[in-house]
Structure prediction request, 1248 residues.
Amino acid sequence: MIQQEWDAGMPLSDAQQSQIEAARSQQTTTRRAVSPGMEERLYTAHQVLDHGFVRVIDYMGDDNAIVQAARVSYGEGTKHVSNDEGLIRYLMRHWHSTPFEMCEVKLHVKLPVFVARQWIRHRTANVNEYSARYSILDREFYIPAPDHLAAQSVVNNQGRGALLEGEEAARVLKILKEDSGRAYDNYEAMISDEGQQGLARELARMNLPANIYTQWYWKVDLHNLFHFLRLRADAHAQYEIRVYADEICKIVADWVPLAFAAFEDYRKGGATMSARAMECVRKLIAGEEVTQETSGMSKGEWREFQALLAQG
Amino acid sequence: MIQQEWDAGMPLSDAQQSQIEAARSQQTTTRRAVSPGMEERLYTAHQVLDHGFVRVIDYMGDDNAIVQAARVSYGEGTKHVSNDEGLIRYLMRHWHSTPFEMCEVKLHVKLPVFVARQWIRHRTANVNEYSARYSILDREFYIPAPDHLAAQSVVNNQGRGALLEGEEAARVLKILKEDSGRAYDNYEAMISDEGQQGLARELARMNLPANIYTQWYWKVDLHNLFHFLRLRADAHAQYEIRVYADEICKIVADWVPLAFAAFEDYRKGGATMSARAMECVRKLIAGEEVTQETSGMSKGEWREFQALLAQG
Amino acid sequence: MIQQEWDAGMPLSDAQQSQIEAARSQQTTTRRAVSPGMEERLYTAHQVLDHGFVRVIDYMGDDNAIVQAARVSYGEGTKHVSNDEGLIRYLMRHWHSTPFEMCEVKLHVKLPVFVARQWIRHRTANVNEYSARYSILDREFYIPAPDHLAAQSVVNNQGRGALLEGEEAARVLKILKEDSGRAYDNYEAMISDEGQQGLARELARMNLPANIYTQWYWKVDLHNLFHFLRLRADAHAQYEIRVYADEICKIVADWVPLAFAAFEDYRKGGATMSARAMECVRKLIAGEEVTQETSGMSKGEWREFQALLAQG
Amino acid sequence: MIQQEWDAGMPLSDAQQSQIEAARSQQTTTRRAVSPGMEERLYTAHQVLDHGFVRVIDYMGDDNAIVQAARVSYGEGTKHVSNDEGLIRYLMRHWHSTPFEMCEVKLHVKLPVFVARQWIRHRTANVNEYSARYSILDREFYIPAPDHLAAQSVVNNQGRGALLEGEEAARVLKILKEDSGRAYDNYEAMISDEGQQGLARELARMNLPANIYTQWYWKVDLHNLFHFLRLRADAHAQYEIRVYADEICKIVADWVPLAFAAFEDYRKGGATMSARAMECVRKLIAGEEVTQETSGMSKGEWREFQALLAQG
Prediction:
């Protein structure tokens, strides 16, 4: 399916592809810390959704930079932790954030506007977005693949339920394609200066729907990136942002393998238990029975607690 | 014109209007600093554009809170500044930011999505936006009044030029109205669960154009608010965000009159001169001739410099 | 002991005490949300350590403001959560941060410089500190009470061990008192302009030790305050900052009782489990045996895990 | 003088010097943007004050990264600005901050505690400071050179006046040296575990004065660094922080020469004029007379205005 979409709409033009290859072919010497995994990734566009991508433009630091910063802070105090992996796991486990802030990454992301609007809520990052006041947007819209065209969940107000079936799915796809096509035709017609004055771009853009693609440079430190990934590379996140977060996870795993492994264990795969939940855990281990009624939890909370214990 | 738009689409329902009146009728005693100008404003919706508004939900501090914070910092050192107005002007002139951070305001804003996208770039604020994942958006779209329907500027890539004339204006308005109406009809059709499953809201929203209205609570301290107002209550800002900033200026003038007067003099009405520009000013005052060529400035910079000297 | 220290050095002068009483006696009407618990607290100085205090200068919002912001975001989506308490607990459990950012508090804190240096690492707050460049610091130093005069821990590089005994304790207290007294005498002698020029204050202050008291206005939103309290009202925090955090916890409990109860259950009393730890929990509940060797945890991690299961 | 201090207290040990040389001797290839000026600087310690230094640990981006980010934002809209220098000057002149945020630098700084306390007020940066809870501080104190030992200013509460003369200067230096020496002796005596338990490090540190040296890793983006430099590489800043800012200016000039030149012209060498001041400038150029009385400015403001016109 992905392959089919890709063929239908390569996210990069030939000219862009050539630029990337040119950029990748240039190598210079540096005295800075170098992450081999990131060097391999640099500039290459990793496709996400039908026309989107993520690519690494620059980075600062590696696993060792985290260790180095921690050792500046804790001096002799870190000597008893025998190795880098142990120290990084210790920092992650005890919520030490500043050593992870010492690494920085700059990504070039192409993404639908409705995804960009979720993404930007993470404020501790630097952003340069393509401006539709200055420039003309491209005719590129996100159209969901049929296996991601889901109905509203009937149990969760913010979630998706079953896949749409046959005719309904076809009807939705037709609407999305036609409406975005017409909106773009009219956008072009309004800004055209042939035989008319031509509407200001900053006004004409208001006709474009939220599935149009935008792009930006997004620069963030590793601590805040982990926070983003914990929330967005998660089953509760909307699919269309989660696929970006999943792709970035792969990049981070190549960049700082030790830190990413600790993140997976303590954050992504970890769980936060309330005082009440911990009390239940202690009773369960002691062989006592616990029910929702005796747990002190609400029904929703109890359901989530049961799910946690059942996982694995 | 504004009146006509208002009649055509009151931004508040009767139920909302009653809620506001009920909230305004409740008064409690407090030991906190109270700004009479803000008490008068509280909860009332001030209309902006055709369906938007700004209203004050809460505030903290007043002019005196700025002075108080400055006196904590500078202790006896501020005694020589004889009065509050002088001290506030001194702080503004010398870019002391922290005393202004001691005041905070929480606004409820209803605004088109493309305006929200500009606004959110100011990251040092707290935001709770209406979620189109959870809830269904209302059928309300910004349609520019004819006297704001401008052509693309031919001299400035991010600006507007002359007003669109007769037929072209009519054509544009027709497109904007029809496309947003159709997009909303289809949005409703896709999420409907009558006789079908109903598309997930988080997907259906992607069909809606950028002139649909959203709303949020926006909380910001006075220093960062002034920064926002300097950039957005400015001739270079897009008209559709400037009208919000202008309305907020009136609110701030009622809230912290001394601080706002200092802001007007030093920031909003002030000018930043480069070292080269200052050199030219000194020569001009001494009666010497200066031209663009001898100024060391580029053509664009020289034009801006000339405009500064001509103002008043 | 506290009483004795208090008698020896009341943190407030009579003039300050009168100012507080005068401020507390003034009441005005307001349309804003009012928290009765905070009104009761306003301006009163709550003593911390020997000469320090925390007092509330201003606040914005209450439990209801959190609920209100959440309902703006989630609209109809929150209707199924039947009451405010349930909604606040839901928000806390699922790491929704922005509704808690809608409340703000401004505190006046007097604290030793070495505590201030830890405190300021929490960057998302607004601060106006007393300036020793402009003004002369008071002769007030933190001298630990004997029951907090502890030896370096032999197991934890950043912790305290047993209490110092008899002679050693006396020797330490003598040093701390004499050195700070002499440092202050010399500070005064250097800045004096009697019979000499008098050293600049910005230079003279460098002679003063880190147990001298400073003071500041500290303004922070509730979400970031909870983050501060989770780290500082904690057994791992240094005692001298923990007592401030503990005092602030009492204030917050009076301010936003529902939010504070949720914070206590999910954050302060809660626990974060790694993926490995959750795996062990599942096995233990199933009656299987787990050892450090089979857990995949390091010795330190296992020790912490065991402690978690033993608590209660 | 500097040389003499340097001889008296080299900021780096031989072991540290060897580590730096080893780090500098390693070169790897990278696909990232490389700034030759920074490569030359990397790891080398540039001495500041008697025992302090600044050294570059890592960096991201160069002048071209600023241009690149601006071109992402403004697309075709930037084509009319013919070259990189012109575009960077345009961005600086119009307060575009986000392109400058795309560059990042990580510095290792050794500095007296009272300087660190000023520095840390700039909150938009990442910091890892040496922890005196975990580790033992070195016996290194800032003692001002005689040509920086100034009296309190009689006109400016936060400034310095004339140099201290003969006996008074000698007396001050004697106090600073003796008090810091004694404080450190007692610090060592308290933490010693020979024949006693040994006071916890987190408590013992409170005896150390504010001229003791600390160190940290400080990571900041170029926009926020420029803000720091505008305030701290300035005649109004305290000398002891200004020398750090001046040293960093030299580093930035090597890193991003075009951006630094624009910063010098528009920020460092530029001036902010109030609306009232601009009105006076217009009158003066027109040959009209203006006095403080007719200017609408306060005496202090007028004095500053006169100074601006006289500079050059």
Summary: DSSP finds 14 helices and nine strands in chain D. The CA atoms of residues 102 and 298 of chain D lie 41 Å apart.
